[in-house]
Amino acid sequence: VCFDFQMDKRPRFQKAGNASYWTDQALIYTYPILKVDFTTLHAMCVEMARYRPYNSTCFRLNPMLGGCLPCTFAGSGAPEVGPSTCVALTLRLIAQAKTGSDAMLLDDSAVIVALGLPQEACAPTRLIGYTPGGAVRALSDAGIVGNRLLGMGAAKALCADPKTGAVWTPPLQLLLRR
């Protein structure tokens, strides 16, 4: 199961086998999320799907300009959630699962601190300022995600084996289209 914010600009779950999303042309990379309880993260995703924040096209301006804009130009349409692209929503959910604080859904600065994201002069000050690649690099540098794996098969190999009891590490899914 994947949690998506791109298909119709509202967060929702979908099967990994959804051919209209995971096309043959898609390159799929997975990153294990570290230091976060999967059950908690999943519960946060379920709650986010109920809030139904809107992924406004206006949010794309900030990352296109290097992530330096201190404003968002639009709201999410959900009072419980700050303006969010797919990247920002992912950062909010990981921070909320890590800290247990609902403040992560609205407070960009709190998310940046909780995840150990860069705070220097040229770093994004709003979560919508992050591109997918920039966010993964920042999460990797902060030790929040592990090494990149190619494809869902590699991510599935991380799942727990009922016979051995191996620990499962949930993958953060990135879809890169050619």
Secondary structure topology:
Layout: E1 2-4, E2 12-14, E3 26-32, H1 38-51, H2 61-64, H3 86-99, H4 108-115, H5 132-141, E4 149-150, H6 151-156, E5 171-177
Antiparallel strand pairs: 1-2, 3-4, 3-5
Short description:
This protein is of the alpha+beta class. It has helices at residues 38-51, 61-64, 86-99, 108-115, 132-141, 151-156, and strands spanning 2-4, 12-14, 26-32, 149-150, 171-177.
Please describe the structure with a list of short key phrases separated by commas or semicolons.
single chain; 178 residues; alpha+beta; three-stranded antiparallel β-sheet; two-stranded antiparallel ribbon; 6 helices; globular; disordered C terminus
Q: Stretches where pLDDT falls below 50 for ≥5 residues?
A: 174-178
Strand portion: 5-15%
What is the helix/strand order?
A: EEEHHHHHEHE
Binned, the helix content reads: 25-40%
By DSSP (H or I, 4+ residues per run), the number of helices equals 6
Could you please describe the fold and organization of this structure?
This protein is an alpha+beta fold and 178 residues long. It has helices at residues 38-51, 61-64, 86-99, 108-115, 132-141, 151-156; strands at residues 2-4, 12-14, 26-32, 149-150, 171-177. The strands form 2 sheets. The protein has a 3-stranded antiparallel sheet. Strands 1-2 form a two-stranded antiparallel ribbon. Helix 1 packs across helix 3 and helix 3 crosses helix 4 (108-115). The chain is globular and about 45 Å long. The protein starts with a strand and ends with a strand. 33% of the residues are buried. Residues 174-178 have low confidence and may be disordered.
